[in-house]
Specification:
about 200 residues; mainly alpha; 8 helices; globular
């Protein structure tokens, strides 16, 4: 993510407690992996605190999908860095690591004893359903903001179909999208939205 708009050192340090608490509680309470965290991060840092934009969230999501490693950790580092520089990245990373670490150490034995319980299975089924709804809402909001141009809408539709059918992996899809975007910028810039349209 670009670092030309990073906050001042004083602002960054002032944000660290909120960054730690949000990432810690999100990692502790969210089941379903890194993508399930996106709605909560968007609500906290975009809608509530205005430290990030919807475009920041979109870029972060695309970047984390194309990088090796755990999505939740990649996302924490990228978002933390965007909001508070290196200190923010380290804080978000630590806050995301702690809950699963303690959960594994303290609760692993208990979970293994009750994992075959039908009540536990039904509870996790309900949790997964609610997480799916949260991800769908964020996806819809991002789509409405980004797909304001016919060309972008067509590219988004093609990308969705390629990914949904399994023809192309996420990494190649992101890289291919970057190549197509550059080619259109050089050859047919009029087909892409202007800078003013992107800021709306």
């Amino acid at each position: 993510m670009p670092d030309d708009n990073l906050p001042s050192k004083a602002t960054a340090w002032g944000r660290l407690p909120a960054i730690f608490w949000c990432f810690f509680t999100t990692a502790a309470l969210t089941l379903g992996g890194g993508l399930a965290m996106i709605p909560l991060f968007s609500q906290e840092f975009v809608d509530k605190r205005h430290w990030l934009t919807e475009e920041d969230m979109l870029v972060c999501t695309a970047t984390t999908q194309s990088l090796p490693g755990i999505i939740a950790m990649n996302m924490s580092v990228l978002l933390g860095y965007k909001m508070a520089g290196l200190a923010g990245a380290l804080t978000a990373c630590l806050a995301t690591l702690l809950p699963p670490f303690f959960a594994i150490v303290v609760l692993a034995g208990v979970f293994l004893r009750f994992r075959d319980s039908r009540y536990v299975a039904k509870a996790f089924l309900g949790i997964r359903a609610s997480i799916s709804a949260l991800i769908a809402v964020v996806t819809w909001n991002l789509t409405r903001k980004i797909c304001r141009n016919v060309t972008v809408s067509v590219l988004a539709t093609i990308s969705f179909l390629l990914l949904a059918t399994g023809w192309v992996g996420a990494v190649y899809l992101v890289l291919g999208g970057a190549v197509v975007g550059l080619l259109l910028t050089w050859l047919c810039p009029q087909l892409l939205p202007s800078a003013e349209e992107n800021r709306k």
